[in-house]
């Protein structure tokens, strides 16, 4: 669906030009493909047939396992297959951020901005072994990457996923999503992601429970008290067969009390997300500058994004992988944040992105890939995905016009030994 846009605010046009984005990109309202994921606990072929029959549409495979494109732009919430947990909605770009973590069973993974929870569910399906017979679908073919990962996880016989979010209602949404899709082996913290510093669990999380930790006044849940001294540092154990109980948080900090993988999907202005921008394009630009491009808003976001990525790096184990992503195309929220982290931390090293095809150079993007139907199901399947290089080496941008996704910036960072740190940050 394409709809002409009559006029855009001058400040928005200036913003696009400053960030190397063709103004013509936003001259039309476009609808990106809708993607869904089939949970790992569902039999794949039977579920495909079930969904296709009910929704009267084809599920077309993408570049990632269990992620499908629907030839259907409407809501999926009314269908029985969605209500029963046979599918859940997730954009392909968001799933690619999870794939960039290079996950496998047995890793401890931290998601610092976890709500509303679709990415957290994908992570838990791999690392926490939701089914004992399922092979990992996101592990890299690179034996070198596997060996590096083993250095972190050799001593661990189990994996875990820890989700953190500062929003009370958003975290409740995440918890409900995990319950709906029967995700196990996970902890949820209601806490500020810029300050979070709890280690991974030292013992396996019981597979019939989700642990929710944080301020007992903000997430109501029944629990039993075990003494005043432990009340401040305690966990709610929910989703169990009986009443919830309280258990103490481990304090085993230090080099071994860190995470092999960290995802920082930071709050941003959403200007790269077509789904968000279409609301303004269709309904008018009132309040856009203040909410998206205002100086105060941009300054506070920059500080937040710096704090989130720095704390994510603090929680990252040596040899681990941190993925930073936003749905903005603003350099100050993306490449500038990466440059800031690298300058502040000599032991931070930027890794190559995790594409299955070579990203396009933005300088070669000549308006030839406008979304006029060419970015359809077949396009997504045939091209895998078509990211473009960001404005810094080893960063990529998935813009809706080339990738057929909702829009995403992505960078991968590892923590090296101090002795390996290079004097130059142009890595």
Automatic annotation (TrEMBL):
Keywords, in A-Z order: Methyltransferase, RNA-binding, S-adenosyl-L-methionine, Transferase
Active site: 327 (nucleophile)
A GO BP annotation: RNA methylation
Entry-linked SUPFAM superfamilies: S-adenosyl-L-methionine-dependent methyltransferases
Gene3D superfamilies found in the cross-reference section: Vaccinia Virus protein VP39
Region (Disordered): 349-371
PROSITE patterns for the chain: SAM_MT_RSMB_NOP
InterPro entries: MeTrfase_RsmB-F_NOP2_cat, MeTrfase_RsmB-F_NOP2_dom, RCMT, RCMT_subfamily_9, SAM-dependent_MTases_sf
GO molecular function: RNA binding; RNA methyltransferase activity
Residues noted as binding S-adenosyl-L-methionine in the record, renumbered to the chain: 165, 192, 265
SAM-dependent MTase RsmB/NOP-type domain segment(s): 1-416
Biased composition (Basic and acidic residues): 360-369
Pfam families: Methyltr_RsmB-F (PF01189)
Protein origin, superkingdom: Eukaryota
Stated family: Belongs to the class I-like SAM-binding methyltransferase superfamily. RsmB/NOP family.
Protein name: SAM-dependent MTase RsmB/NOP-type domain-containing protein
